[in-house]
Amino acid sequence: MTRTRHAVAIYARISQDRSAQELGVTRQVQDCYAEAKRRGWTVADEYVDDDLSAYSGKKRPQYQRLLEDVSQGRRDAVIVWRLDRLHRQPRELEHCVDVCTHAGVGDVVSLAGEFDLGKSEGLFTARIMGAVAAAESQSKSERIRRKSQEIAEAGRPHMGGPRPFGFEADKVTHNPQEAEVIRELAARALAGETLTSLATWLQETGVKTVGGKEWRTTTVRGLLTNGRIWGMRAHRGHILGPGVWEPIISAEQGERLRRKLLDPARRTNHSARRYLLSGLLICGKCGNRLHSTPRGKYRRYGCRKGADSAGCGGIFIYADKLEQRVAEAVLHRLDSPVMHQALTEDGIDQERARELAQQIDEDKTRLADLATMWADGDLSREEWTTARDRVKPRLDANRREFDRLNHRDSIAEYIGHSTELRTQWATLNLSRQVAITEALLTSIKILPATTSGRHGVDLDRVELEWRR
Questions:
Q1: What residues have CB less than 8 Å from 240, skipping those under 6 apart?
Q2: Which residues pair with 43 in a beta bridge?
Q3: What are the DSSP E strand ranges found in 15-94?
Q4: How far apart, in whole angstroms, are the C-alpha atoms of residue 131 and residue 127?
Q5: Structure letter (DSSP) for residue 272
Q6: H helix or E strand, kind and range, residue 146
Q7: Mapping DSSP to helix (H, G, I), strand (E, B) and coil, where does residue 332 land?
Q8: Which of 19, 82, 328, 408 lies 20 to 30 Å from 462 when distance is taken between CA atoms?
Q9: What is the pLDDT of residues 168-220, one digit of tens each?
C-alpha cells in the first residue's frame, strides 16, 4: 500500500547539457511530477543540477540543499528519474543513506522502482545499482579520454567547449577580425610591449574574449603562448604536432612568444611604470643601479643608500630632462648607418636563438634541481652555493644574448625612419618607448654633476652604452 507523502522532493540532474537549454532535466522533472501524481503525493520543491556530473566529484549545489532539507525533516520522500541521477559513486550513496536513515526518510523512488533505504533488501539493491553506475561512468570516462587522445593525435580540434579566440565555431576556420587582433598582439608583444599594456589596449578598443569578458594579463599570455595560434595541436599540456587548421602567426613567432612570455625571469611587478629608464641607469660612483627616488612633485633617479640598499647615495638626477635627452639620442641612433647594417644585414639568427633557449631551459632546470637537493638535505649550503654560482652567470649571460637577439623586433620597423618615429614618440605608450630604448641601449652611466642647475642635465655626466 502506497503511503501518502505531503513534502516530496524531486531531484533531477544531467551531466552534460551541450545545448545549455536544460531540456534533459526538464523531461526528468516532468516525468517525476507524473509519478508523484500517480501516487497521490504532494511535491514540495524541485532540486535541479544541470550540466553537473555526479561521478566527477564536483559540488552539486541543489543535491547538497536536498540533503540539508531531508536532514532537517522538511522532506518525507524523494523522487528521481533514475537512481544514478542521485549519485554515481558508492561513497555518495552511503552518505545519502545515512542522511535519510537519521531523518526517517525511507522512500526513495525512481521511475524504475521504489527503494526503501531503511530495509536491507532496498539498500542492497541500491548498492548494486550504485556500483554498476560507478563502473559505467568510469568506463565512459576512459572511452572519452581515449577518443580525445585519438582526435588530438590526428591534429583535429578538441570536442566540446567554446570556440577558441581567433576561430569560428568549427575551430578550424579563422575569424578574420579576431585573427587580425592576434597578429597585432603577437607583433607588439615581440616588440617588447608588456602584457598589461596589451590587455589595456584590448579593453580600450572594445575587444572581448569569446565569453564576452574583459581581457586580463593572464588571458593575453594564455592566448599568445597557445600553440593553436601557430597551427599546433596540444593535448593535456603537450604539443603533439601540427593541427588541421591554418596558423594565424608563424611557428617562428609562436616559439619566440612562448620563450619570451613563459620565462620566469620576466618582470612580475604589476605596478604602473612611470620611469622610462628604470633598470638602465648605473651610478658613476659606486656602480650600483639607480632607482626612482621622487622628491615632491619631481621625478628623479638616484643611488639609494640605507639598510635595504647597497648604493652610495652620491648620485641623483632629475628624470624629465634626462629622458628627453636619451630619447633624442635613441632616435638619432636609429638613422645611424652602422646600426642599420648591424640590425638588417643578417636578421635574427634563429638557430642561435633556439640554441640559447635550450641552454636557458637546461640551466633553469639545473637550478631547480639544486634547490630541491638542498631542501632534501642531499647538498650542504656550501655545495649548493658553489654549484649555483657556476650555473647562474652562464644563465644570465645566455639570457642577455637571447634578449639582444629578440630586441630587434622592437625597432625593425623604425630603422632609417626616426623622423616619423619622432613625431609619434609622445603618442606611444610608455611600454613601447621602453622597448625601443632597451633595444638600443644596454646601460647608461650617470657621473657626478660638474655644473650647478636645479633641473637641467649636464650631458658630460651621461655615458650611453649602445647594443652591438
A1: 152, 153, 155, 232, 233, 234
A2: 8
A3: 43-50, 77-80
A4: 6
A5: P
A6: helix 120-153
A7: helix
A8: 408
A9: 988 889 999 999 999 999 988 887 788 888 888 898 899 999 888 889 888 99
